[in-house]
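step 3/5: co-fold with zinc ion
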Amino acid sequence: MKGKIIRSTGSWYSILDEARNRYDARLRGKFKNEGLKVTNPIAVGDNVVFNLDEDGIALITKIEARENYIIRKSTHKTGHGHLIASNIDQAIIIATIANPRTSLGFIDRFLVSSEAFRIPAILVFNKEDLLSEEDKEFREAIFDLYTSIGYTCMATSAQTEKGIAELKATLEGKITLLSGHSGVGKSSLVNKIDPRLDLKTTAVSGFSKKGVHTTTFAEMFQIADKSFIIDTPGIKELGMIDMEQGEIGHYFPEMRALVGACKFHNCLHVNEPGCVIKEKVQSEEISESRYYSYLGMLEEKDSHR
Ligand code: GDP
Ligand code: ZN
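step 4/5: write tokens
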């Protein structure tokens, strides 16, 4: 029998088969993970082969090759990763201009990770109803910036339902990872899209302006016949896979387009002479905020070696 892992809580899994039957599942035997060093052998989104035992428990015998996956560093085993989800068609970052404001650095980090994992990314700005005129101008400027780089941007409000139909259409027939700081309205948006799910919403606490997350495991929800969303509670970032300093620029599409243009082939675009990227930042063809995000990530890599 074949199915998809929709939930993982350690040693127990939930499988959904094509006929929409759900099974509680366990692993049979040891699994090799394509040479991956991971603390968990199975991720939400994995397609698996299984048999049922006499108690109706599914025993997973095979994991199909993954089209992609996201992984983060394991917090308890050095040199190992923790698989979060696999076989993802697109990743949506839900951000807000107000209450709370999502930083551009955070957005850029998400985009770099999604480029590195080869998952198309979409930006959704929620709580449009709360924006002042000034906020709206700022939001427009951000849209112009990210649209020019090639990312799809959407404005939504779970309150007024602005953009909900458009968001729903974007999810159609796809497996979509939803990400964002808690408090941005992820659960509220999902509940608007499919009220049957009734995800728990958390009021943004007045003190920290950051909500408290209510669940800890990634979980996949079916919202239509062939549409799924993967909710990753508590996972703010997609996580960074190990990349060399020289690689980071490849995950900024506007920099990637200029590969080989600098004087030095291994230019990191910091202080090197003849750096075309720095020239483009000067002439505002590359956004300063994106460049600063790049430098921040470069510096972080530097301090880790
Ligand atoms: P999550 O942590 O991202 O899942 O956020 P929630 O869906 O729990 O929402 C956090 C808070 O923001 C709740 O108090 C929601 O009612 C509120 N909220 C969510 N979306 C909107 C929106 O579009 N407009 C306004 N005004 N409030 C919203
Ligand atoms: Zn350069």
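step 5/5: annotate
Residues 133-149 form the longest helix (17 residues).
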